[in-house]
Amino acid sequence: MRVLIAGAGIGGLTAALALHAVGVEAVVLESAREIRPLGVGINLLPHAVGELTRLGLDGELARLGIATRENLYCDSSGARLFSEPRGLAGGYQHPQYSVHRGRLQTMLLSAVRARLGEDAVRTGMRVEGFDQDADSVRVGISGRERPIEADLLVGADGVHSVVRAQLHPGEGPLLWSGVRMWRGVTRMNPFFDGRTMVIVRGSGDGDAELIAYPIGPASVNWVALVPVGEPGPLPGDAHWNRPGRAEDLLPLFDWNLGWLDVAELITRSEVLLEYPMVDRDPLPHWGHGRVTLLGDAAHPMYPVGANGASQAVVDARVLATELSGGSPAGLARYEGIRRDATAEVIAANREMQRTGGTRSPRELARITETYRRRTTAQGA
């Protein structure tokens, strides 16, 4: 069996490694001509770390990331509301890692090329569409006269997936939460023990929220979430790489936390991106025949609870497991396992996002614990 994977992101590269581990040939088609370590920080939850550990990547993860010990919830005066142990400290079998997305992608890319061969990831290959019959799938590539033929196609080409658009035409715009996000990475000494993620909320409903966590010995990733509109269809494109402006944020975060200089965090950021918090409603089915979806292409979700990349990693393992027998029917089994599970995470993320800043510490702790129970079960 030969599987083409559209997209060399975290999900696509992990899928290639997982398929190789069960004896299935995989080739990754990436539209960019050069894969560079771009982006900001992300979190890998323990169930995703477990999957990457089974692929023999635990040592590299420990070298690249920070093992998060706790999530600490605070108010805008810096006072502690409650804390939530994470990773090994929270009783999980594996750590939770905070890591730079680009460095993680580079690590996965190196592993794919080392194990599958240099030609296993082909850059400058923009997928334009596909057609299939009972025996194969043929993938059209921009600028190439002849398509590439394989047994299966996996669309891991992100939230603006070309594969998804052909499978589900006329789906409409992304769904906006009404929240705009600013994300950055700042060179500065981490706060507390260097292994704590902080979630700082204003005192009222509709107030801004700040999330910050170290992704290296002297590197802090941060996310500012600001409600600016009503939820609904997103007008226009998401513009993922749109540069943000520190001056737009500073008036909203005149907080004196004591243990973190928020103004310094924002103004000294090495990269500052601004984009809307969006997702899509779950699909009634992901793929058809010899074609399916994975990661953000299958289930774009709010970046709440660090679930986006982690769910893509779990997708990759389940896909490989169900295809290990060599039958295309494994795609349907993969969807049957993962579609309802990821739909539950989308719903939990939306509910978590709606919880406002006027909650008491006890209520916030209860909501957070309920969220963890709902979403951790979907990582199995």
UniProtKB/TrEMBL annotation:
<dbReference type="InterPro" id="IPR002938">
    <property type="entry name" value="FAD-bd"/>
</dbReference>
<dbReference type="InterPro" id="IPR050493">
    <property type="entry name" value="FAD-dep_Monooxygenase_BioMet"/>
</dbReference>
<keyword id="KW-0503">Monooxygenase</keyword>
<feature type="domain" description="FAD-binding">
    <location>
        <begin position="285"/>
        <end position="346"/>
    </location>
</feature>
<feature type="domain" description="FAD-binding">
    <location>
        <begin position="2"/>
        <end position="168"/>
    </location>
</feature>
<protein>
    <submittedName>
        <fullName>Flavin-dependent oxidoreductase</fullName>
    </submittedName>
</protein>
<dbReference type="InterPro" id="IPR036188">
    <property type="entry name" value="FAD/NAD-bd_sf"/>
</dbReference>
<keyword id="KW-0560">Oxidoreductase</keyword>
<dbReference type="Pfam" id="PF01494">
    <property type="entry name" value="FAD_binding_3"/>
</dbReference>
